[in-house]
Amino acid sequence: MQRRKTNGKGKTKARGGKAERKSEATGVRSDQRGLEAKLQETKRELDTTQTDLESFCFSVSHDLRAPLRSIDGFANALLHEFAEKLEPQAQEYLRRIVDSSKKLGALIDELLAISRLQRTELSVEELNLSEIAQATIARFRKADPERKVQVSVEPRLQARGDRTLVETLLQKLLENAWKFTARTSAAKIEFFSRTNKGPKVFVVKDNGAGFDMAYAAKLFKVFQRLHSPSEFSGVGSGLAIARTIVLRHKGRIWAEDTSGEGARFCFTLGKEA
Length: 273
What we know:
Layout: H1 8-81, H2 88-119, E1 124-128, H3 129-143, E2 149-153, E3 158-162, H4 163-180, E4 187-194, E5 201-206, H5 238-248, E6 253-256, E7 263-267
Parallel strand pairs: 2-4
Antiparallel strand pairs: 1-3, 4-5, 5-7, 6-7
């Protein structure tokens, strides 16, 4: 039997190619480790920056309370104790100061609420969202017994999350629906779910004033309003608070076009919550 002759150059070439591939693989792994280290460092810097911003927000909001109480207190004292000595125009000015101080107080309260939400440690458990929604609506009805609103809540909606934060989330979304149906005849609010390929989507829908989808990006920003205070009360932070809570749960929240027939807000509570 005749043996096949071996080409020495071919062997050298093969060995060289294998060595080159090994060297390239080593280089890729080294680059990956370097990139991962840079990403971790960037994440640490971002976390530190976020913590600093949250602390700053909390401190500023908290420190504004004392001078605001003084402004409100002294303006009220002048208005009630020296009203007879003041001209009607001066009384009107003082009433405006008092009203403005109350509005500023509400803004500070919302800033503090958002700051606390970002700092609160989550305590995750299994939740019945349907029961939470029903209890929230019951409070609205008790506070405003003259309102006639048809409310539909899908039963046995389950999710995992922090009870306090999820209760606040549903309160803000349902409160938004309750408020913006105030001028709607046959007002209707719905809370239901739908299942796609990803996480279960929860939906709060109403047939109220709605909004222009061209401005949808502003909805979840702090103190952004698409309606004037004379139309609907509030400081424009409810949806921003809702967004903060959803993000804390690794979820998503968004608004959908309803073709001018009210509003529909959707959210998920991520698997990692």
